[in-house]
């Protein structure tokens, strides 16, 4: 167990360091996020739809698309110079490789979200600060589920003929439960309704995380054995 | 007998059953239109029930097969299991498409709209997307062994996803008609309609089994030929 954490940590640190040195994916994800948030303001008729009613959906569409950019990078990185083969030849367990990749992706997507959230509050004029605690919880839970499934999908997608184009086709259906739940919970928070009234959605989100993180850890081995 | 010959024999033996299923399906419709009373509120539009419900049943049966056979493949690594899962996904895709086409045709006169984001409609639509992803993924991987592994992973994850989509869309309101046969307190569907429905369910299940067998034999034949060609190239 300690070994697993150590190896996973090393893999995650390597990926984060690589990204920190180049910052190409991070910068493009940020620009992309800002653009989507700005464009979504023109996706509504301001006399008929208030920014508030569009806000929860806009937030999650932005997070989802920005996250997808990051996920594609995770295994695309390893394909260059067949770096993945080196990783698999090392005595690292497959589970550690997967956990490390998920951790690095969580850092990446989390960082994008951390910058996007204030921007979102500004553009959509939503009071984020009073509900920040529960909102961060919702974002963390939904992001965990989405990154866990997305990392597994991206390990398959990069080895297909369609490469990057394959990921959305594979991943988007799997985002229905976590994103629906997250949108509902976010709407609840922004409307100032108590968190307890949306307990069903929170349970759904937790259940999704538990089942899919477990399933992805078990199935990851099957996606990379050569 | 070589595998190719065996597959060909299965194809020859299964082909007549396709005709039998289609004839029985015509019989279902003769019974539904001429010998089953029209529904009081929905009129003739309700007749689509006898295609829609059996197709949905068969579609879910197909996904059950894809999920369980995928799991079996990852355990046993038998390439035949992979071909079976692929055949079930393809045939299931056809029946899901039938469900998604017949639903709106009924929905327009009865609900007044082609489509609504109701729980069951949404669930079926996303099932369709998952199977589509499954088939696209298969098409995008060349090497058979890797294709089988990837497809199995997606098949298993897809079957885990179904209950989650079901719960998440069910937390929204639903306007879809509620079950009329399998419900607490006994069936509300009148006897003659129930007979037609069960007849139709049986025929669709038979048709599904025949198509699945045929498609599976076809895949086996293609595989056997590819292997023979590879051996010739080696020699």
Notable characteristics:
heterodimer; A: 226 residues; mainly alpha; B: 235 residues; 6 helices; 79% helix
- Mean of residue pLDDT of chain A? 86
Major beta sheet of chain B, specifics? none
- General form of chain A: globular
Structural class category of chain A: mainly alpha
Task: Spell out the blueprint of helices and strands.
The complex is a heterodimer of chains A (226) and B (235).
Chain A: H1 2-22, H2 24-40, H3 51-79, H4 83-89, H5 94-124, H6 132-157, H7 166-171, H8 176-190, H9 199-224
Helix pairs in contact in A: 1-5, 2-3, 2-5, 3-5, 3-6, 3-8, 5-6, 5-9, 6-8, 6-9, 8-9
Chain B: H1 3-34, H2 49-76, H3 79-111, H4 119-140, H5 144-170, H6 191-234
Helix pairs in contact in B: 1-6, 2-3, 2-5, 2-6, 3-4, 3-5, 3-6, 4-5
Characterization of this structure:
Chain A is mainly α and 226 residues long. Chain A has one domain. In chain A, 79% of the residues lie in helices and 0% in strands. Chain A has 9 helices and no strands. Chain A has helices at 2-22, 24-40, 51-79, 83-89, 94-124, 132-157, 166-171, 176-190, 199-224. In chain A, helix 1 packs across helix 5, helix 3 packs parallel to helix 6 and helix 5 crosses helix 9. The longest helix of chain A is centred in the middle third of the chain and has 31 residues, at 94-124. Chain A is globular. The mean pLDDT of chain A is 86. Chain B is mainly α and 235 residues long. Chain B has one domain. In chain B, 79% of the residues lie in helices and 0% in strands. Chain B has 6 helices and no strands. The two termini of chain B are 21 Å apart. Chain A binds chain B through residues 149, 152, 156, 159-162, 166, 169-170, 172-174, 176-177, 180-181, 184, 200-201, 204, 207-208, 211-212, 215-216, 219, 222-223, 225, and chain B through 74, 126, 129-130, 132-133, 136-137, 139-142, 146, 149-150, 152-154, 156-158, 160-161, 164-165, 167-169, 171.
